[in-house]
Specification:
alpha/beta, TIM Barrel, eight-stranded parallel sheet, 16 helices, binds flavin mononucleotide
Length: 332
């Protein structure tokens, strides 16, 4: 396939994995990149510049193909801003193919010299946005591409609650950059639809979580098969709305407690023991699914199996071809 996204990143298929804390490791990134799609190495998995350096080296041992490194730019106790700056510098030093910025724009959060730093290193810069305004800003300050994420997405949707179906064509009309569509994308039908709405490719996370190579506990795989599109909640507006964000996570007892604390006006100190990343890190591996906040998108309702990524990608491409042909015949 050839789109602006395959050309920009030098990949075979316009399908990218999104950042996934604790899940998007060298092993998953390389497995995805080895199919001709684009894996994601999430810097938040690491506690120092050296750890991220080692993870980039490890990914390169497992694949010679391009992958993207996610840097999530939002206030965090475990990942202070100076560490995110170190991560960005490591990506430039290592000349990774691309950096995915998620959260605040890199120029306002880390500093305006970070965009020229990436350009000098030949590293492409992509911004995940949940509003038209941020996409326009990304183009203005020199990003190479945007990921347009509707509020169906798992993780940190924008607080404006605009769906992929509406946000994507809005951004396409206003911005002259390569675009990845995200939020609710789970198969070839959604890839075809995204291309028709003006995207040059898609980004998925929940669907990649539901593959053998994500390496999560069998109970998590069972959960992904059982849950439907109505089983996620939007919460943490009390903490994140100031940054324009909120969280989409699976409904479970932890999220019920979070809702109670938010209703009672509880602060970060009251919420942190429930929502800490360390809690989720344990649960992905031990499978105690009621014990942590699990960021998962509405697309969980479209997960029907747990394939290997080597099976998922060609299947998506075949489905997309069928969907496009159906559309062509309908319009003929
Ligand atoms: C398990 C999981 C962990 C995630 N962690 C992060 C993260 O650390 N940083 C980030 O920017 N987005 C994170 N996200 C959001 C994804 O990168 C992506 O934007 C979103 O999930 C896309 O929607 P989808 O799940 O419908 O494919 C995570 C998503 C999942 C499912």
């Amino acid at each position: 396939m050839k789109t602006l996204i395959t050309e920009l990143f030098g990949i075979d298929y316009p399908i990218q994995c999104g950042g996934m804390l604790w899940i998007a490791t060298p092993e998953l990134a390389a497995a995805i990149s080895n199919t001709g799609a684009m894996g994601n190495l999430t810097s938040g998995n690491y506690n120092s510049a050296d750890e991220l350096r080692a993870a980039i080296d490890r990914t390169r041992e497992l694949t010679y193909r391009p992958f993207i490194v996610n840097i999530t730019t939002m206030p965090s106790i475990r990942l202070p801003t100076h560490l995110l700056m170190d991560f960005f510098e490591v990506c430039c030093e290592k000349q990774v193919t691309a950096i995915e910025i998620a959260g605040a724009p890199v120029d306002s959060f880390l500093g305006s010299d970070f965009i020229p730093m990436a350009k000098e290193a030949g590293v492409k810069l992509l911004h995940k946005v949940g509003t038209l305004k941020h996409a326009v800003h990304a183009e203005k300050v020199g990003y190479d591409a945007v990921t347009v994420a509707g509020f169906e997405e798992g993780g940190f949707p924008h607080k404006d609650n605009v769906s992929t179906m509406v946000l994507l064509p809005r951004v396409r009309e206003a911005v002259n950059l390569p675009i990845l569509a995200a939020g609710g994308i789970a198969d070839g039908k959604s890839l075809a639809a995204a291309l028709m709405l003006g995207a040059d490719g898609v980004m998925m996370a929940t669907r990649f979580l539901a593959t053998r190579e994500s390496g999560v506990h069998e109970s998590i795989y069972r959960l992904l098969l059982e849950k439907t599109e109505t089983d996620t909640v939007l919460q943490l507006q009390s903490l994140l709305a100031g940054f324009g964000l909120q969280i989409r996570a699976l409904k479970n007892p932890i999220m019920e407690q979070v809702a109670e604390i938010e209703e009672q006006g509880g602060d970060l100190g009251a919420l942190l023991p429930l929502i800490s990343g360390e809690r989720a890190k344990a649960v992905w591996k031990d499978g105690n699914v009621d014990e942590a906040m699990l960021t998962i998108g509405q697309s969980v309702g479209r997960v029907r199996d747990i394939p290997s990524v080597a099976d998922l990608i060609p299947r998506m491409l075949a489905e997309a071809g069928e969907a496009l042909e159906r559309g062509r015949q309908a319009l003929a």
